[in-house]
Task: inverse folding
């Protein structure tokens, strides 16, 4: 085993098991899934507009993915009924596309896509602003983006801990009067949809799993303008939809990363 992993393991730290360190072949597979997933999000970005329904976004995602040889991972995943998640305003994540939900000027919407290609997974999401929005919403979108970038920066070298990036992200959110959702986190991804480690977007430096070369995982901070607490949607029979408890707005950006000897590389851009 890598001596640096052994070193931290002996000091009581959480270290990755062998299967979390990808082979060359696995990395190539995940990389290709990332390329297709990026093309899917580019397709959404090109076509998203005021007046369209979130179900139309879902159709775009399904058609583009399938016609390029991929499979949308969300579809039928643990009962999820659609090919992507569309989360508007106070929806934190896992919003379900619907014919009745029409995009309006000023909406901020997260579209989250995960693509399976040749058995490998890549997962990413972007925020879209419909027309012109309020300065408050725009600021939230920007801060959520900065939080993702700060997570990436902390991972500019290997052998950092998940808690290092979580701590930096939460500091940035709090400094700007925002909060970090605690109930949902980033995750290992690549061979399965959701794997170890949990990538929490808050926490103490030096806690959580050690991130070593060959690991693939997401960073996907969910940033609220108000309180960090979340709740379910009583009107959602699938129990997937997550809302802010206080009705405040929420924003999120996500990438899939590969940790290398020189820090992370984005696989979804
Ligand atoms: N893509 C989400 C994530 O970032 C998970 C969505 S699960 C689904 O982890 F079933 F709602 F699609
Ligand atoms: Co996602
Ligand atoms: Co994810």
Result:
């Amino acid at each position: 085993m890598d001596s640096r992993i052994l070193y931290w393991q002996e000091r009581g730290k959480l270290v990755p098991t062998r299967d979390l360190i990808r082979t060359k072949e696995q990395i190539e597979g995940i990389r290709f899934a990332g390329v297709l997933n990026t093309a899917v999000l580019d397709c959404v970005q090109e076509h998203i507009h005021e007046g369209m329904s979130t179900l139309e976004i879902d159709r775009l995602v399904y058609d583009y993915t399938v016609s390029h040889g991929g499979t949308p991972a969300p579809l039928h995943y643990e009962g999820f009924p659609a090919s992507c998640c569309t989360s508007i305003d106070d929806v934190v994540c896992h919003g379900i596309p619907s014919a009745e939900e029409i995009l309006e000027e000023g909406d901020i919407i997260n579209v989250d896509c995960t693509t399976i290609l040749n058995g490998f997974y890549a997962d990413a999401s972007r925020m879209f602003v419909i027309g012109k929005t309020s300065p408050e919403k725009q600021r939230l979108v920007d801060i959520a983006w900065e939080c993702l970038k700060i997570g990436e920066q902390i991972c500019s070298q290997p052998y950092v801990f998940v808690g290092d990036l979580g701590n930096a992200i939460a500091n940035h959110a709090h400094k700007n009067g925002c909060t970090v959702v605690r109930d949902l986190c980033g995750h290992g991804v690549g061979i399965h949809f959701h794997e170890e480690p949990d990538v929490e977007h808050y926490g103490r430096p030096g806690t959580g799993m050690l991130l070593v070369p060959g690991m693939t995982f997401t960073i996907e901070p969910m940033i609220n303008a108000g309180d960090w607490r979340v709740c379910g949607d009583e009107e959602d029979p699938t129990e997937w939809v997550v809302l802010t408890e206080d009705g405040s707005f929420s924003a999120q950006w996500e990438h899939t990363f590969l940790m290398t000897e020189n820090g992370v590389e984005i696989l979804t851009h």
Summary: The CA atoms of residues 72 and 115 lie 5 Å apart. Residues 123, 187, 218, 220, 254 surround cobalt (II) ion (ligand 3) (CB under 6 Å).
